Structure formats: C-alpha cells, structure tokens
C-alpha cells in the first residue's frame, strides 16, 4: 500500500453539478471459478490525478454523482452479484454491530479483511477500500466492499470529521476504481468470476462510529464520478447508447 492518501478532491466534491439519473442494471454469471484474489488499491489517487481536472469536471455535462436510494429491509437479503459496502476499522476487528453479522455471514471475507489489516498499518489503510470477491468454494455470490473509515474503534474511534473524510475517499475509490477494474478484468477473462452488479449498504458509520446518517449520506452523494469507463452491465444507457447515469447505492436499513 503506497504512501498515505492526501485528501485533495474535496474542492471537486463541493462544486454544484446538474444531476443526471438512471439506474444500474446488472447481470451476473453464475459459474464457479478458482478463488480470485481480493483487490486493494495499489496507488493513492488524489483529486489532481482524477481523469478530468476540476474545471473540466465542472463543465462536463457527463459528470455523474452517486445517489443513495433508501429502503427498509435486511442487507443480507441482497441478490447475487451485489456488492455490500461495509464501514470498517483498520484493526482487523468485526466484533460488534453489523460487522459481527458480516463476520457470521461471510467468515472467509472476514479472514481476507483481517489478513489485509495484518499486512498494513492504520495510517496506510485509512480512506482506502478492499474489494473482496465471492468465495466460490462456499457457493457465495456476494461481493464485500470494505471501506476503511476509522483507524480504530470504540472509544478510540476517529472524529466524525475524520470518518467523513475517510468515507469520501474510500467509497470513491471502491466505486470509481476497484469495481470498474474488477468488471473490466471479468470482461476480459470470465474465469476470474462474476461482475459486480448492484451496490447495497446499511447506514454506515451511524451506529458504533457515532456519525449522524445524514452527514455520511451527504458526503457519499457529493462524490462525483467522471464519465464511467464504458463497461457493459454496469449502467443502463438511453436509446442512443449514451451512458448518462448516476450510480445508485441502495441503502437498506432495518428501521
Ligand atoms: N442486518 C442489518 N441490516 C441492515 N442494517 C443493519 C443490520 N444490522 C445493523 N444494521 C444497521 O447498520 C448501521 C450501522 O451500525 P453499526 O454500529 O453496526 O456500524 P457502524 O458503521 O456505525 O460502526 C462500524 C464499527 O462497528 C463495528 O464494530 P467493532 O469495532 O468491530 O466492534 C465495525 O467493525 C466498526 O468498527 C446501523 O444503522 C444499524 O442499525
């Protein structure tokens, strides 16, 4: 994991953009494959390195935004090929709250997350993401997307502002870099497994991490995404084949 990320894309996030909307469509292959490796970011992206400069993104009519669609239900009832986004500490612990439910439902994903934490430091993990593909040996079809939003947990958890900054960087990296990279690889070699389809998450950070849900929602919906690389199966296009989508994250909560 290379040097710590610098949070330079916040100016870009604060710019107002026209919001274009569409929904994502998904298709998944249900083949069984050898266990693919989890994907972690290899380099730190700063705003300056984004594919478009802030001005270009400002004027670019195709600049997209994430949108959160809220509903009640159980996050673990997601359909195959869904990516479940999970707010994690950097200490290798899924000990309470929804983390414990993730550990119980996806023990091999927990082992992958724990091993990732063991080979990195909180300082290099914070604000990054880890895409964990389904474990075909367990006949799983759900992706886990760890977003490292606090260095520690409990009383040592980071401040609300620090968690929000890390959330912005980690969710942007997961959805803008790791998912397209994975889906492109699957397009090139179906032996790698199935493509990521829908994005689901609970009201991350709002329980044990103590961040009001509306604050996290605001940060996630301010994430702009320069035109998503044309990766079939990740977005619907209009009749003209134009991809004009906001990527929708389904936020599923029990209350
Ligand atoms: N089955 C279910 N379906 C849908 N929604 C569900 C649900 N179960 C709970 N929720 C809701 O999901 C939100 C988040 O609630 P949480 O407090 O758990 O997570 P958080 O993101 O605030 O905090 C992360 C730290 O907590 C953990 O604990 P450890 O440090 O490991 O001990 C981690 O590892 C981190 O460190 C709340 O709205 C819950 O109502």
Automatic annotation (TrEMBL):
- Enzyme class at the top of the EC tree: hydrolase
Q: Where is this region: Disordered?
A: 1-62
The EC number of this protein is 3.1.3.84
What UniProt keywords are attached to this protein's entry?
A: Hydrolase, Protein phosphatase
Q: Which family does it belong to?
A: Belongs to the POA1 family.
The function of this protein is: Highly specific phosphatase involved in the metabolism of ADP-ribose 1''-phosphate (Appr1p) which is produced as a consequence of tRNA splicing.
Name of the protein: ADP-ribose 1''-phosphate phosphatase
Organism, as annotated: Salinomyces thailandicus
């Amino acid at each position: 994991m290379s040097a710590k990320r610098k949070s330079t894309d916040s100016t870009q996030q604060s710019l107002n953009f026209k919001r274009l909307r569409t929904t994502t469509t998904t298709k998944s292959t249900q083949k069984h494959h050898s266990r693919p490796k989890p994907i972690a970011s290899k380099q730190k992206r700063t705003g300056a390195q984004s594919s478009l400069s802030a001005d270009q993104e400002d004027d670019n009519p195709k600049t997209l935004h994430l949108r959160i669609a809220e509903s009640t239900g159980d996050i673990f009832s997601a359909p195959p090929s869904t990516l479940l986004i999970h707010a994690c500490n950097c200490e290798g612990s899924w000990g309470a709250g929804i983390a414990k439910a993730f550990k119980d439902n996806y023990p091999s994903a927990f082992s992958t997350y724990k091993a990732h934490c063991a080979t990195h430091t909180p300082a290099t993990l914070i604000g990054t993401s880890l895409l964990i593909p389904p474990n075909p040996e367990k006949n799983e079809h759900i992706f886990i997307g760890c977003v490292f939003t606090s260095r520690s947990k409990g009383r040592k958890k980071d401040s609300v502002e620090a968690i929000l900054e890390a959330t912005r960087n980690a969710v942007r990296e997961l959805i803008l870099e790791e998912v397209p990279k994975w889906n492109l690889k699957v397009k090139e070699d179906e032996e790698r497994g199935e493509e990521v389809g829908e994005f689901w998450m609970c009201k991350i950070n709002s329980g044990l991490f103590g961040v009001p849900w509306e604050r996290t929602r605001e940060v996630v919906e301010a994430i702009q995404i320069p035109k998503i690389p044309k990766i079939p199966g990740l977005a619907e296009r209009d009749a003209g084949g134009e991809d004009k989508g906001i990527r929708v994250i389904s936020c599923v909560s029990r209350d």
